[in-house]
Specification:
The chain has about 260 residues and is mainly β. Helices cover about 10% and strands about 30% of the residues. The protein contains five helices and 15 strands. Strands 2, 3, 4, 5, 6, 7, 9, 10, 11, 12, 13, 14 and 15 form a 13-stranded mixed sheet that branches. The chain has a two-stranded parallel sheet with strand order 1-8. A hairpin with a 4-residue loop joins strand 4 and strand 5. The chain is globular.
Length: about 260
């Protein structure tokens, strides 16, 4: 729960940084780590029982994703200042998603607080719901500051429509084999290519959507979805037919939304 003010408070004492950051959404599991998946005995309903370090997946009260409905408009919310720069392409198929690791130097600023962009990845279908509606895909831009113990995720919903040029380039390089990594220093990308024209957002406190489901994550879900072609959506779905955690209970959390046009 957080107050509708310009102050951003992320309780870093809730979790240990050394535990949280190695398991960022989309991080690759190591052989010594507990294995998890999206179906069957290793699926989301069982994550909390697979390992003691995954306890928050079952016992947490501020879990993500959620179904966003009845969000309150707040004039105190500030625009997100995106400062994304070019980055050499480094793309990984880690067994849970296609993840793009980002070069140091990009990030966002919200209410004067900086969050460096470290990676982004995709889900099919969307994890977030809006009034019970799912979208075809979802992009998570993960920003982390290990020194301050802060994580902010900017989520962008993706619907079927026109071809997305940046996604086209990424899919052309995406490795099909689990564990495979492609690094091309001469190929550069800019995550700003994913940003919609309208950057109003919903905001709430939540968690990672993958084990260990650590809480204390600030979520900014952009209201305006972007488009990807049916072929692009199908191409990702061929690699990952379902890598979306179901929505979690709100448990009394306040949902806020911005409206910078008023």
């Amino acid at each position: 729960m957080f107050a509708p003010s310009t102050k951003l408070a992320l309780a870093s004492s809730v979790f240990c940084t050394a535990l949280l950051f190695p398991h960022l959404a989309g991080a690759q599991s190591k052989p010594s780590e507990p294995q998890w998946g999206y179906a069957g005995a290793d699926g989301p309903d069982h994550w909390g029982d697979l390992d003691s370090s995954f306890a928050a997946c079952k016992a947490g009260t501020r879990q993500s994703p959620i179904d966003i409905k009845d969000a309150t408009e707040s004039p105190d919310l500030a625009p997100i200042r995106f400062d994304y720069k070019l980055s050499p392409l480094k793309i990984v198929n880690n067994g849970q998603t296609i993840r793009v690791d980002y070069e140091v130097g990009s990030g966002i600023v919200v209410n004067g607080i900086s969050f460096p962009l470290t990676q982004f990845h995709f889900h099919h279908r969307s994890e977030t719901e809006i009034d019970g509606q799912k979208f075809d895909m979802e992009l998570h831009l993960v920003h982390q500051d290990p020194a301050a113990g802060r994580i902010a995720v900017v989520a962008i919903l993706i619907k079927s429509g026109a071809e997305n040029a940046l996604l086209r380039d990424l899919l052309s390089h995406a490795p099909s084999k689990v564990g495979e990594e492609v690094e091309k220093k001469k190929v550069v990308i800019n995550a700003a290519g994913f940003l919609p024209a309208d950057q109003n957002y919903y905001v709430f406190d939540g968690s990672l959507t993958t084990p260990p489901c650590s809480e204390g994550v600030r979520w900014y879900v952009l209201k305006q979805p972007i488009e990807a072609s049916p072929w692009q959506i199908a191409a990702f779905a061929k690699l990952y037919p379902n890598n979306a955690r179901p929505v979690e209970p709100l448990n009394g959390r306040t949902l806020l939304q911005s409206d910078f046009h008023k």
